[in-house]
TrEMBL record:
Annotated keywords: Cell membrane, Membrane, Transferase, Transmembrane, Transmembrane helix
An MF annotation (GO) of this entry: phosphotransferase activity, for other substituted phosphate groups
Transmembrane segments: 6-24, 45-67, 79-96, 108-128, 143-164, 176-194, 200-222, 229-248, 254-273, 304-322, 328-346
Main location (coarse class): membrane
Membrane topology: Multi-pass membrane protein
Domain of life: Bacteria
CDD domains with a match to the protein in the record: GT_WecA_like (cd06853)
Compartment list: Cell membrane
Protein name as catalogued: Undecaprenyl-phosphate N-acetylglucosaminyl 1-phosphate transferase
InterPro entries for this protein: Glycosyl_transferase_4
Length: 370
């Protein structure tokens, strides 16, 4: 039955995407490459493709919820409601940004409200696994709120920043055709297989993750290079939001998801640190992300995307067989890979710059000595 829902989500997404394409083009929600030198696509391309994933995902989840009574234990109605409210906030805000190009201080409001919608419905872990054995209780510090139960401070703090981190990871990753959609689909499939493991069987979580993967892969049919339509601002945030929330409601599979998304997440940290060092806005776009560096190294878009898919898949599969302690070791290896890649790219890019500077200096001296 799970495979049937996956197939339905996939097909619905494939069919919905051309309709979204037509609507967005009619509304003028189009990414024009000449308006931004960082753009690498050749012709105007409609934005807002995330609506196709949103529509197919929630339609099929709603069908599963209504038809087979799948949910109620691991995935409670509040989880689905939080997902729906937060996702809709992100998609609506993303549409406004794609259409009107909002300022950064306005853009950030939508991810904040989306994360708060999850917290308001009490979605969050009460404990997390201790890498060195046992669990860490997160419910020690809580504030009773009339009508809402208890606000668990430490858990809510972790959930809020985790979701914000996941949303901005996928937002910043959305630079090459099909990159975000494919990496997020890999993450959802890893959560699916992990939730089917007899050691912590969670069929409800597995079903939602599989439906989400199907919706993403259906959109990827149209988003693969050369892309006919882009996710848009809302779609890039929404996909990270859903994946991050699935990691939480599946029993705190944060380490697992972090292995899949680790390379993009570390790249985001590196880029933000670099922007802070240069005293530029952390929201200011540039071409310093890893995927752009791969293009400058000589890879094609498809080659760069497949390479990043492969790394996400390798580290994601390791999460299926490793215990929590070894997942931390794997993440350390991932960090080392990121540092080595950053050093290699810095050296590779310094070479042409140094040669260019030497050439310009030589020309200047030649002109002076005439």
């Amino acid at each position: 039955m799970s495979l049937g829902y996956f197939t339905l989500a996939f097909l619905l997404s494939v069919l919905a995407t051309p309709l979204v394409f037509l609507v967005m083009r009619r509304l003028g929600v189009v990414d024009r490459p000449k308006a931004d030198k960082r753009k690498i696509h050749a012709k105007p391309t409609p934005l807002g493709g995330g609506w196709a994933i949103w529509l197919s995902f929630f339609s099929v989840v709603g069908l599963a919820y209504a038809g087979d009574n799948y949910f109620g234990v691991d995935v409670a109605p509040k989880h689905l409601l939080g997902l729906f409210i937060g996702s809709t906030i992100l998609m609506a805000g993303g549409f406004l940004d794609d259409k009107y190009t909002l300022r950064a201080r306005h853009q950030i409001l939508f991810p904040v409200f989306a994360a708060l919608s999850i917290l308001a419905l009490g979605v969050g872990p009460h404990a997390i696994s201790n890498p060195w054995g046992g669990v860490i209780d997160l419910s020690a510090y809580k504030i009773p709120v009339y009508g809402l139960g208890n606000i668990i401070l430490l858990a809510d703090f972790i959930v809020f920043f985790w979701l914000m981190g996941m949303m901005f990871t996928t937002k910043f990753l959305d630079g090459l055709d099909g990159l975000v959609t494919g990496v997020v689909a890999i993450g959802a499939l890893i959560i699916f297989f992990l939730s089917r493991d007899p050691r912590w069987l969670q069929p409800e979580v597995a079903l939602v993750a599989l439906i989400f993967a199907g919706a993403c892969l259906g959109f990827l049919v149209w988003n693969w290079h050369p892309a006919k339509i882009f996710l848009g601002e809302g779609g890039s945030l929404f996909t990270g939001f859903v994946l991050g929330t699935l990691a939480i409601i599946s029993g705190g599979k944060i380490a697992t998801t972090l292995l899949v998304m680790g390379l993009p997440a570390l790249d985001v940290v590196r880029v933000i640190a670099r922007r802070a060092q240069k005293k530029t806005s952390v929201f200011a776009g540039d071409n310093e992300h890893l995927h752009f560096k791969l293009l400058r190294s000589g890879l094609s878009q498809r080659q760069a995307v497949i390479l990043l898919y492969s790394l996400s898949l390798i580290f994601g599969l390791s999460a299926l067989v490793l215990q929590t302690t070894y997942k931390l070791i794997a993440f350390g290896i991932l960090l080392l890979v990121m540092l080595l890649a950053a050093a290699w790219f810095a050296r590779a890019e310094r070479g042409p710059q140094k040669a260019r500077t030497t050439y310009e200096t030589a020309n200047s001296v030649r002109e002076k000595t005439g």
